[in-house]
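Z., the sequence and structure:
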Amino acid sequence: MHRVTFRGEVDSGPLCYEADDLVLLDPAGAALSPPPPADRTVHIDYPPRRATAESVARLLGRHRPSRLVAAGDGATLDVAKQAWLLAGAGTALVLAPVGAEPWRAFAPFTSLYEPDGQRVSRPDPSLATARVVVDPAPLDRRPDQVTALHRADSAVHAVELLLNTRARSWQRVLARAGLAALDSRLAGEDVAGAGLITEAFASTGLGLAHAVASPMAARAGRTHDSVNVIVAPHVVRHWGERADWSTIASALGTAATAAAVAGSLAARRERAGLPGSLAAAGFSRDEVLAVVPFALRSSGIPWLPRPITATEVTELLERAWTGE
């Protein structure tokens, strides 16, 4: 059975501010026009911290705006979601994904940094009840590299869902439809595709690339998308012909072999301007290998195509670090 996670509304059109909105903006969200009222705007910096969400929650408690509006990268959307959750009922939540990781607008969880530097994900079904505004104008103005990275990251999510042995037919249909939408030339359709893919994996989990990318990026204070996209081709080569690539290959428009699927994901990585190795991305070997025990505790590990050992994860990461 597939549990529907996103239960909000999606509007395709310009984001319009209201008089008493409290607005969270980051540099990506600043591309929206016209700008929101300055006295009702909070500027958010990366990384997304729980303390920032708590501060915004206090503002919500004092001012009681009718809406909390967040525009920008997925990290800023997560701050808004957590603040809204902490503040309790009474304020509508509006999310405008116009930068990196737009899929977070649709996810029933947040990922924020704690005071000790750890990044912690918190699930709550109500987090997927926001009104999401897919505004074509700022999406069309995104830097090409931001768009390419988001599409590559969401493509990896879809591939991992389609490899997940727990996934059901409904989730597989959503993932394939999302993959097709990612490459649309129409502004905003790639965000819709990311939403479909997020719905597909939200109640199932992802796979080995994400299991590695999430703790590695969190420890380095980076977003997980770059790591995910660099590691994914190496994961595909690790599975080789032990996995059935037919459905994934059909969705990607490539041959049903591990080499062809890995090549398709590598081409997406290249369009995002990323190197083929974690070393070239600035990670030390020690930083990379330190994530092995954390990766093995990821929720998606029990549902991989085959069981995997710490030794295998270590070997995979060695290859991802060197790029071999």
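The mean pLDDT is 94. Residues 144-163 form the longest helix (20 residues).

Let me know what you think.
H.
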